[in-house]
Amino acid sequence: MESALSNIRHYQSLGLKNTGASLEEVKRAYKKLSLRYHPDRNSDPSATAKFQEISTAYNVLSTPRKRQVYDAYGEQGLKMYEQYVHMADTDDGGSKIPLQPVTMLLLLCVALSLVILLAAAFGVLLLLYLDGALSSPLAVVLTPLWLIWACGLCCAYALLVSGRANRVYVARLALLLLCLTAFAVLLCVRADAGARLSYALVFLPLYLLEAADVAGAAARCRPAAYEAEKAVGRAQLPYFAHLVRVVGWAGAQLAVVVLLPLRLDGTIAAPWSALLGPVWVMLFYDAVARCTLSAAKGGGGGGKSESEREVAMRQYSMLQLVFTLAAAAMLGLLCLKLDGVLESWAFLFMPLFGAAAIYFCCCACCCCTLGLAPKPQARDVPDADYGPTPPSTERDPLLGAEEPTLPREGLAQAV
Question: What CATH number has the domain spanning 9-98+386-414?
Fold first, then answer.
């Protein structure tokens, strides 16, 4: 299977000898081959597929921006660019985000870096607040979170107005941010204003959020919804295992949200490790399911080569496993601190700070690689082995006959 990063296949399809071929050379090559392999003129069964391949190659190499992306980043980079253009294009042919793909990627890295920087600042403030080294109000400690949530709500509003994103997912994101904001406001009122609010009232926005999650989990349990998620790669487990995971996580979150205010108000006196028992069970289930799935995909197939999609999904599953184990470790440290085993909160925040430092190093390397990447130079194109040329049922018009009128838009552009 040819690599998706290859950037010479389209040149081979048109029979061009060098990647620095001019637009006129591209048009002449397309005109010659399209007349030879046109389905109306060539009855060979392979002629249609060859004609489609030629048309695709001409569409890429005759468009300056597409050709530039293809020469620099290959076919996979071209796919990402076309998805980006589809999101940015307006109905009147304009562009909502008139930026180069690399520029857009750099801006995305910068935005994500700012979010992680604010999250790290919140971690430092919260650590000082919990250890008693900071006497500022809780509302001040939560300032980085206020900024993150405000930016998230602005982005959600922009996506809803543009109509380019899935409205259901964007609405869920907006509901999550609104409920978290309301919860933080009530928590600040109880901690800073001295109001006699019970934790059951403070957790009221989270009850609403969990009710929406339970409704969403019930919708995802339908076989049709499972098949739709499986088609896009979101659901990788078998149906029964997927059902247990979706229902289990919804129930675990709801149980914890119900038990937490009871524990904080002193109604129950169970250890924190036992209070978070449902989450422990689901983390263990997730880890076992991800390990089983990765082992089945990595060791099965009897030597059969995996497609790019299968490899990407297996890597995504491994990444989810890593995050699951990290979440279990963080939850364990939290339970040890709340139960009085650990003396300082620093043990809980050190892994978060380490992960943020690793991210910034990786992001800096990626940005430098994108910014300093050399421009592709013209080079010779090796001949492609396509086998024998299908015979044409009519004489090639380029050899002296009159050119026929063909019902193809690409031919009209080439001529």
Answer: 1.10.287.110
